[in-house]
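[job 4471] stage=fold_predict status=RUNNING
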Amino acid sequence: MMLDDNNQNTLQLPFEYHHVPDFGSDFIKSGKIVSTDDSMGLVLCLCTKGSIDIESGLNSYSIKEKEIYFYSPAGFLHILNISDDFTGLVIKPKMDFILPLIYNLLNVRTQMYIRDHPKLSMTDQQYEYITEIMSSMEERINHEMSSDMEERRRMVLTELIKSQASTLFYEILNMYLINQPIELSAPDRNDEIMQKFMVSLDLHYRQERNVAFYAAEQCLSYSYFSEIIKSKTGVTALKWIISRVIIDSKQMLEFTNISIKEIADKLNFPTQTFFGKYFKQYVGISPKEYRKRCKNRKGDVTANKIEIDLYNYLRNSDTKSEL
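[job 4471] inference complete, writing C-alpha cells
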C-alpha cells in the first residue's frame, strides 16, 4: 500500500515516510547528491529490493535487501550506484521527535558507535516483523484519513500513529543492539551536555566556530565544557567544530558548482581569503586546488586521502588556535 503524502500533512505527523523510487523521480538516482533539511533528525533508509551504493563522509556503504542505513542529515549523501530493481522506504523523523527517543536510552559512546557503524542487516524474521509494523502504520493513516472525522478524533489518531512510529524506532534499535551487541550504560549529565553540543553543532557550525558559543549555550565555562567533550569522545570541542566546517567545505567544493566566494559566505567567513587560509591550514591545499583535484582525480593527493589525513589530523594533533 502506498502512503498518501496529503494524509501525512493533514495529520501533522512528526516524520515523513516515503517509498522510493516513487517519491520523486530525481530524489534517488546514481550520481545524485542528497542533503536533508536541518529540522530532520536521524533518517532511516530501508532497502526492500535490489541494492544501493552510497558515500557519506569518510566511508562508502552498499545497502542490500533487508538492510537499514542510518543517515545523519548534517552534510551530503552521495549516491554512487543503484540497481535497476531497487526499491526502498525512507523515514525522516523530525529532530524534536527522534532525539528524545535516542537520548533516553543511549549514552554518547553508543551514539558514536552507531554513527560509525550506520548499517543494520536484519534476519528474515526481523525484516518481516519490521515491515509488518510499517504496513500497519501506513494502513492506519490511509484508512482513517479516507473518511471525515472531527478534530478531537484526528488528534487521538495522530497520537496513536506517533506511538506506532516510536515503537518502530525502538524495535529497530533493539535489533541493532541484538545484532551488534554494545555494552549499554545509563546516560549521565555529561552525556546530556555532549548530546546537546552535537545537535547545536549540526545547526550552527556555519555561523559559529568558537567553542565559547557552544559552552555559553549550556551555561558552562569554556574550560569545563571542553573537558567534558574531550572526556566523552576523545576529541576536543574545537576539533569537532573544525571537522564539521572542513567536511562541509569539501563537500560543497566537490559536489556543487558554488563559487569559492559563495562557500566562504555560506560558512560565515569574513572574506574568501580568510576561508582559503582556514581551509589550507587543515587540508594542506587551497580550496581551488582541492576542487581541481576532485574533478580530475589526479595529482599527488587524492580527495579521499585528503579526507583521511584531515580525520587523522583532528584526532591526533593539538589545535591551538581558533580561526
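[job 4471] summary: The radius of gyration is 21 Å.
[job 4471] exit 0
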